[in-house]
Amino acid sequence: MGCLWCAVFCSSFTAQVYAQETPADSLKLIQLNEVVVISAGRQLDHQKQRKPLSTLDEFLESSRSIKMVKRGAYAWEPTMNDMASERLAITIDGMQIFGACTDKMDPITSYVDVSNLSEAEIGSGQQGAAFGNTIGGGINLKLDKSNFKSTGWTGSLESAFETNNAMRVFGGELSYSEEKFYFNVDGIYRKADNYKAGGDEEVKFSQFEKYNFSINSGYKLAEDKSIAATLIYDEANDVGYPALTMDVSLARAVIASVSFNQDTLFGNFSNWETKLYFNTIKHVMDDTKRPNVPIHMDMPGWSETAGFYTQANLNKEKHHFFFKWDGFYNKSYAEMTMYPTNSNEPLMFMLTWPDVRTKNVGFYAEDHIPLKNASLKLSTRLAYHSNTVADDFGLNSLKIFYPEMDRTNTRFLKSFSAQYHKMLSDFHINGGLSYGERAPSVSEGYGFYLFNSFDNHDYIGDPGLNTEGSADANLSVTYKKPIFEITAGANYFHVFNYIIGMVDSSLSTMTIGAEGVKIYTNLDYAQLFNASLSGRYSISNAFKLTGRVSYHRGVDDKGENLPLISPLSYRSAIDFYKNQFSASLSIDGAGVQTNYNPTYGETKSAAYATLSASFGKRFFLNDNDLFLKAGIENIFDTNYSTYTDWNNIPRMGRNFYLTISYSIN
Amino acid sequence: MKTLKYIFAILFLSATFVSCSDDDENTPAEINPVEGLNMIYEIPATDHTVQIYSEKQNLEVGYNEISIRIKDMASDKYVANAAPSWMPMMHMETMEHSAPHSMLTNTEESTVYKGHVVFQMASNDTEYWEMILNYSLNGQQKEETLRVSVSQPADGLTKTQVFMGTDDTRYILAYVNPKEPKVAVNDLQAVLYKMESMMSFPMVENYKITVDPRMPGMGNHSSPNNEDMTYTSATKMYDGKLSLTMTGYWKINLKLMNSSGETLKGEDVTEANPESSLYFELEF
């Protein structure tokens, strides 16, 4: 595991304490639970990171609040508070992007890489509503930009190698930045073979190859005005998904944006930023390399999104307002062509996503009010959301199930949140209440025979689903001393109209070998509870000890377990840093999954623990830096799988890695 | 700013694409009453001609919808009061028989006489079909006999079933609609006749035909919201609903039940019995 959670900023509560003093940066006003520092190219950060060139997925997994669902070695799906993609708002630099795969093989986090990101901003529950409509939380992946710093030319080269799956990583970046102009170019290439689980067990179809290229640039029009543009091209080929019945031959994204920034607006507003963006994703599944395929099928999917946001801060007496107006238009289309065994028969064709056009326009506002030894944050998001089935073929297909359905479905989504923070000498108390809503995802509303290999069922969407809403409460207490800190926190989500697939035994399966057909349905409610205890202890200037244990529970309206809920899990690490030398030893584990649900295809995952270690050293060569980092993950070559591993595919066994970064100043 | 313009252009274009997505307006009806039909036979006579139209290129085994026009050469007009009747006849080597057919009516268009015939078999060199037409022209009764060729449908799919029911009656069941199946809930239509004698094929009313579409190539996948076919007196056909969830080869498993609910032909599709002995085949 790429543990680097020492890189994680302590806790939201402390971040917020500092932020409230001088709200210079608009984003600091958004109370974030966590910020994960990524930027692979920044030499300063290397020492904080146990595994600098690990995948973005590993970075995210190392965060406190995110767990990753795995279908293979690539394109893991982030979950927060035990909720996955459809209940989260995940954006890249504020841009809405939606995966093009009906089977969730391409979470949008798979379309960027550590080479072009600086950090991941994470807000739990409605604290993530600044990024979009959400239930579980929001994640914004911030792109790495020079932002008019007078650094001149800088460049770096990085390479890494991992023994377990022979992963080769090559990356480089070049930047030029001065007061009026900057540009950054970076690229990264990764290629991995099949990995081996503990005990030298090869996990077939776990290979992948991907490259990512990005350019971003900014130009100052005047002292207080600037424009910026970004372009990201990401392509993955030959990606194996051992937990699924198909692999991916192409996953390609082009992500572009232009933005305009101005320091003030109408005198009172500050940090005015406006962005227009467009992204297009193509995703092609491939089963040609699999043996014993009952029926060969082509499953391409496309997702295009155009959007905008404009945001500004307003400080008025004690109030620190942040306003954001945003909108996007998404087109999701996916089809499936099956090739019958009898080649005289015509091809079998269906639209699995019937060209769904989603329009969403939202207004977000928050007010951050510092009080005496305390602060209060109020926020709201109000959004108009509509879905339209643009393709007649697709509409007629869905009408087989829903003869009365309308082509267009509109809803009004609301979110309100109040978060209070109080400081009592060394104690920080943080509590909040909020309510948020989300519209069903394209698959939940309009999916047509989407096969889920986890529970072995075909899924069909329901365009008439009710809006899902969630009332949540969170409370945490932190005891903080300069060398010592401990936090106990918990949150509870009461989710109304919880959307989940329920078996309809009257329906006949489409996928050969599937057990049945599920229809996305609203449960009356579901309850999710998460609690954690975490601490940090600075033994000396050089040694630091961290630890965290968390408990999770999720039940539906009948008290049955919800799927993909974490068992008791823990992590602990000791980090050493002195004289440009760093080392760490970390343990990562989980208890037995006692609360699982076989109805959703779950089996009890066993307890496990893995131990990892890393060593790093920074060398100065003239003005340049050479940074070496080596490590061993899963030292005892444990064969294990966790509750997030799709179909219990075992995780990687013992793995040695080495990264080299050379930066030229 | 150029990039900005470009983005605007993209936004504008995408908006345009959305706004012009459905523009298939209905074109006004043509005056030609046999528009879209093929004239498959023309019988020349001294003072008139008889024209026979079909939507197919030729007559085929199964359900054929036929339109007939009679043109009076003297007036150069199509006749509206010919009151025609017809009789298909199969001449086999050892016997002769007719085929189920409807009356010819001109309710939609006064000069076009419409009806259907269900051919049970194809013609060949030694066994052939004849169509005997009787009609009146300017007060005179006429009869024409036309030798027609009937071929098996080119797609080789079973859309007509001739079978013996458990009541020892021979039935003829022929698929009518949808002519162009869609991935949707289709209006399913069929005609059912019984064979009373070699020459008499009356229509069967008030029976029921159950519908169970399956894809044998997809593990016998079926679809929801199908409706069994029941008799509609207005159309004199059996109407039901047929849901098709994807394109491809479908086997529409059927069961014929009489008005007291007894099964005359066909079986339920189960794990053990993947198909009924009474079925239609579709490909699209």
Notes on the structure:
Chain A is built from 6 helices and 35 strands. Chain A has a 22-stranded antiparallel beta barrel. Chain A is globular. With 284 residues, chain B is mainly beta. Chain B folds into 2 domains: 38-151, Immunoglobulin-like (Sandwich); 160-283, Sandwich (Immunoglobulin-like). Chain B is 6% helix and 46% strand. Chain B is built from 1 helix and 21 strands. Chain B is globular and about 65 Å long. The N and C termini of chain B lie far apart (50 Å). Classes of the chains: A mainly beta (665), B mainly beta (284). At the A-B interface, β15, β16, β18, β19 and α5 of A face α1 and β16 of B.
Look at the structure and give the mean pLDDT of chain B: 87
The level-1 CATH class of chain A: Mainly Beta
Individual helix count of chain B:
1
- N- and C-termini, Cα separation of chain A: 31 Å
List the helices and strands and how they pair.
The complex is a heterodimer of chains A (665) and B (284).
Chain A: H1 12-21, H2 26-29, E1 34-37, H3 43-46, H4 56-61, E2 66-69, E3 77-80, E4 88-92, E5 95-96, E6 117-124, E7 137-143, E8 152-162, E9 167-177, E10 181-192, E11 196-197, E12 201-202, E13 208-222, E14 225-237, E15 247-265, E16 269-286, E17 296-316, E18 319-339, E19 348-371, E20 374-389, H5 392-399, E21 408-424, E22 427-438, H6 442-446, E23 450-452, E24 457-460, E25 468-481, E26 484-496, E27 499-503, E28 516-522, E29 525-538, E30 543-556, E31 569-578, E32 581-590, E33 608-621, E34 624-633, E35 655-664
Parallel strand pairs in A: 4-7, 24-28
Antiparallel strand pairs in A: 1-6, 2-3, 4-5, 6-7, 8-9, 8-35, 9-10, 10-13, 11-12, 13-14, 14-15, 15-16, 16-17, 17-18, 18-19, 19-20, 20-21, 21-22, 22-25, 23-24, 25-26, 26-29, 27-28, 29-30, 30-31, 31-32, 32-33, 33-34, 34-35
Chain B: H1 2-19, E1 38-44, E2 48-54, E3 59-60, E4 62-72, E5 77-78, E6 85-91, E7 96-98, E8 113-119, E9 128-137, E10 140-148, E11 150-151, E12 160-164, E13 170-177, E14 185-195, E15 208-215, E16 221-222, E17 227-232, E18 237-243, E19 249-257, E20 263-265, E21 278-283
Parallel strand pairs in B: 3-11
Antiparallel strand pairs in B: 1-2, 2-4, 4-5, 4-8, 6-7, 6-9, 9-10, 12-13, 13-14, 14-18, 15-16, 15-17, 15-19, 17-18, 19-20, 19-21
